[in-house]
Amino acid sequence: MAVDTPSQSVAKAAGDSVARGRSRGTGKPRGAAKRSLSTHWYAWAMVAPVIVVIAVIIGYPLIRGIYLSLTDANERNVARSIGVNEIPATYEFVGLDNYTEALTGNQFLSTLGWTLVWTVSCVALTFALGLALANILNRKIAGRSAYRLLLILPWAVPGFVSVFAWRFLYNQDNGLLNKLLAGGGIDAVPWLNDPTWAKFSVILVNVWLGVPFMMVALLGGLQSIPGEMYEAAEMDGANAWQRFRHITMPGLRSVSTTVILLSTIWTFNMFPVIFLLTRGGPGEATQILVTQAYKFSFEVSPRDFAQSSTWGVLILVLLMLFAAVYRRVLRKQGEVW
Amino acid sequence: MRRGIAATALVAALGVTLAACGSDSGSNGGGSKGSGELSGTVTWWDTSTVGSEDKVFKKVAEDFKKKHPKVTVKYVNVPFGEAQNKFKNAAQSGSGAPDVIRSEVAWTPEFADLGYLAPLDGTPALKNSEDFLKQAAASTQYKGKTYGVPQVIDSMGIFYNKKIFKEAGVEVPKTIDELKTVSAKIKQKTGKPGLYLRGDDAYWFLSFLYGEGGDLVDAEKKTVTVDNAAGVKGFKVVKDLVDSGAAKTDATDGWNNMQTAFKDGKVAMMINGPWAVADTYAGKEFKDKANLGIAPVPAGSAGQGAPQGGHNLAVYAGSKNLDASYAFAEYMTSAETQATVAKELSLLPTRQSVYIKSDVATNEMITFFKPVVDKAVERPWIPETGSLFAPLVTEYTKVLTGQTSPDAGAKATGDAYRKLLKDWK
User: Fold this and answer.
1) Which residues of chain B have pLDDT under 50?
2) ipTM for the assembly
3) CATH superfamily of B157-307+388-420
4) Cβ contacts of residue A115 below 8 Å, gap of 6+?
5) Which segment of the chain is annotated as a signal peptide (chain B) (predicted)?
6) What residues of chain B lie within 8 A of the CB of A41, using their CB?
7) pLDDT per residue over B20-33, tens digit each?
8) How far is Cα B8 from Cα A11, in angstroms, rounded to an integer?
9) Residue A83 is nearest to which of B11, B317, B403, comparing CB atoms?
10) B377 Cβ partners below 8 Å, 6+ apart?
11) Distances in Å between the alpha carbon of B82 and those of A115, A300, B185, B235, B379?
């Protein structure tokens, strides 16, 4: 520290917040932080922009969201400055009122119910289909790479494009699906106009979108299982089902646990499929938690920022709980994750 | 020392980047200061029907340049269904908002209440304002100030395909009961459904609600009326129309499905307003314009009633070019422009003086709709009027798709309104 050059202070300024961040995490005495700063200041300076960006794009909205969920903020009482009109904020802190309202009211729980049905059925179906396809494509069949390419297509097309395409297919009067059915003498199906059919339709699209990811991930897992194990099992007289049950499944565990966790989180928050296909309709039949939170914030009038944030925070809490429980279960089974 | 230089350079680079982010990007100002000549850019958000109306409006808007050569008009068509929220988002954040917006009549008091609109009293925007129809001007007023210039006024009627009617040998229904028998006969003779009823937009529900003597709210008595006996009956009527097969409906893509079905002659009737005329004439069934018939909406048990609607041009309070925006709003609502629009699109003018022009006075659609508008049901122009549709459409769709009963649907709507309108009965 004695050889402090004039520029040292500048360097400190750049890494300042970072040093504090680290010392909070490790709980080391201040001396250690200082020493770390003086030896690794350049590294700190290099990561500083990333940390600043993350703090700005993740930290700030998160804290602001939590704060708003504790107020009664809506479109009418937030601060706005429009040209000559300066309107100050008049919303108030209301404590946990929004949470009590959401958790005791009917709407949140019924939406949560459908969100769970949606998540479980989507993840289960995509996983089953992905596993089946991965197993098929892991064999040596003619045109294997062509099949792989085709099956990955839903993933390669931007999500909103395929969802719009599905919307056209589903159209009750002019959609291709109903035209095909009519050719077979079947009456038009109200794909998106009947509450039950709409639920089925959105799940179908999400499964279609989700299968490639599952398939690719599981195919990778399958290829890492050594072929000798199958040979040995065959020698011992194990049939196909036994080989699948006792070699393939355990061999895939590390991959499948991860993809199931990821897929659950993604599906739980799968905004575009629901929003672009049905906007949560008909009525509110296909509304999941995120689309309903969006509706509060952007579609109802006056836009209800407080309630929307409340739902957002509740979604975060639910997913964190899920991840924690999932992790614990896996750890009990001896899985390192 | 080398270290020091590097660090300084890094910090300087960061500083420059941050400064670049923070610099003011919006400076398309201009205005009339000094020379008295208008200049700059005016961005206009139009919400008219894409594919038919938008072409005419775009051309008319860009012709503003002929009068004010230094002003550039940026025409943006925002789908009607999204415009209300899109404008509120942009207006509140202060970035990306237009200078002038085509604001639906129910949105105008809401935007004004939120402080997003510039008051227009005493500005050039309100030239010859005594010429405006009283009904059209009503929605532009909020707390004693004027926040919009009436651009078009409208109501609803039954559009019917004369050819199909002739084929089935039926007359235009005047009441809901007649509508049901006519629909049944059309179905029997031609196999086509009688009426297309939009199930994804509650505006199409209003004439049935009014027909039973119901209304959304009673602003004078500060009472929510949508869930009273007449309101419940309104819900029952539409549900019955759909259940009995007299009307076909959709919970998604209603506008496109309705227009496609009607234009292709796959359905005999639809309820619609002047905004659909230009688009309908583009359909293959209506190459011969005479095939399109129009009649008042069928009367319910309490009489006949259609909603009065329309659009105003409103100026964003945060506009950087207020003077040119006022002039643009005036130009777009002038008698001359309205006459052009009326002639090309059959939209109803808001100025009395336009109705006596020969082109307009002989337009079949306008001569039909003018008396309809005169006795159309006016909604209360309170800020919350723009908020009444979101809860209504959810319940309306639920009723039509059988997820809830008419009674429960009406009640849920009423409860949502009472939450919205504090202290109302």
Assistant:
1) 1-4, 6-34
2) 0.81
3) Periplasmic binding protein-like II (3.40.190.10)
4) A268, A288, A289
5) 1-19
6) 7
7) 443 333 334 444 44
8) 8
9) B317
10) B206, B210, B215, B305, B306, B307, B308
11) 26, 12, 38, 26, 21
